[in-house]
């Protein structure tokens, strides 16, 4: 990790989080299922999930862009897409209470992965690290992640480090077959001396962390 470019190319990911009005979540999902193909015609969707645990009435979706010019061109095209504006946005915007976005890079030692099969659940873990950037905490954090991966208690999907938004933030996506499978893996990890030692070293640089259990929507490439 470095404080400069996160990878050898300009690809980045936009993470969009929407809080949906509590009484409108079902309506929002129906609108997404009906019209979201209009949005994915313009750029690549990585994943789209609704929160099951750790948050309520919240959705998270991640988009991949070649560079910032690519994103600008897509946003411009969307403003001129009458179907997108008239069918999806006109129906969805009244259902949304709040929107938030971040721009993030994949950490250079992690490739975006896929689950071994469909039908599981995703854990989205957000780490807020001490100021100083990856040059300060990157090595210890990487060691902690790699220890979890090698232990095999859960499947790593991706690790993103923010470039715009709340800085010194890392989002890690894990996949499990079920919430119970995730709970069993956590229990095993807590008793694994390798994991405990690696985590103990990395938490020196941690300010806070939170997580959500996410369920993929039908339109999500990551299912």
Q: Rg from C-alpha positions?
A: 18 Å
Q: What share of the residues does DSSP label as strand, in percent?
A: 25-35%
Second-tier CATH architecture of the largest domain: 2-Layer Sandwich
Low-confidence stretches: 1-5
Count every helix, treating DSSP H or I runs of 4 or more residues as helices: 7
**Count of DSSP E strands?**
8
Number of domains: 2
> Helix/strand/pairing class, anyone?
alpha+beta
Which bin fits the share of residues in helices? 25-40%
Summarize the main sheet: 8 strands, antiparallel, barrel
Strand arrangement within the widest β-sheet reads 1-3-2-8-5-7-6-4
CATH topology of the largest domain: Alpha-Beta Plaits
Q: Which H/E pattern describes the elements?
A: EHHEEHHEEHEEHHE
Shape label: globular
Walk me through this protein's architecture.
The chain has two domains: 93 residues, Alpha-Beta Plaits, CATH 3.30.70.100; 111 residues, Alpha-Beta Plaits. It is built from seven helices and eight strands. The protein starts with 11 loop residues before the first strand and ends in a 7-residue tail after the last strand. Strands 1-3-2-8-5-7-6-4 form an eight-stranded antiparallel β-barrel. The N terminus is likely disordered. With 223 residues, the protein is an alpha+beta fold.
């Amino acid at each position: 990790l470095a404080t400069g470019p996160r990878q050898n190319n300009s690809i980045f990911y936009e993470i969009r989080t929407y809080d949906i009005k509590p009484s409108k979540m079902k309506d929002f999902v129906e609108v997404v299922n009906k019209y979201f193909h209009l949005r994915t015609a313009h750029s690549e969707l990585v994943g789209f999930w609704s929160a099951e645990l750790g948050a309520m009435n919240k959705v998270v979706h991640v988009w991949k862009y070649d560079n910032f010019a690519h994103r600008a061109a897509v946003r411009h095209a969307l403003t001129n897409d009458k179907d997108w504006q008239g069918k999806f946005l006109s129906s969805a915007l009244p259902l949304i209470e709040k929107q938030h976005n971040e721009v993030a890079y994949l950490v250079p030692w992690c490739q975006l992965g896929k689950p071994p099969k469909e039908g599981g659940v995703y854990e989205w873990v957000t780490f807020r690290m001490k100021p100083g950037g990856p040059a300060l905490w990157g090595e210890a954090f990487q060691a902690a992640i790699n220890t979890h991966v090698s232990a095999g208690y859960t499947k790593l999907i991706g690790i993103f480090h923010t470039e715009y938004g709340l800085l010194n933030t890392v989002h890690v996506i894990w996949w499990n077959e079920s919430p119970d499978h995730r709970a069993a893996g956590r229990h095993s990890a807590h008793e694994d001396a390798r994991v405990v030692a690696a985590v103990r070293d990395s938490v020196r640089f941690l300010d806070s962390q939170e997580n959500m259990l996410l369920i993929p929507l039908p339109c999500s490439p990551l299912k």
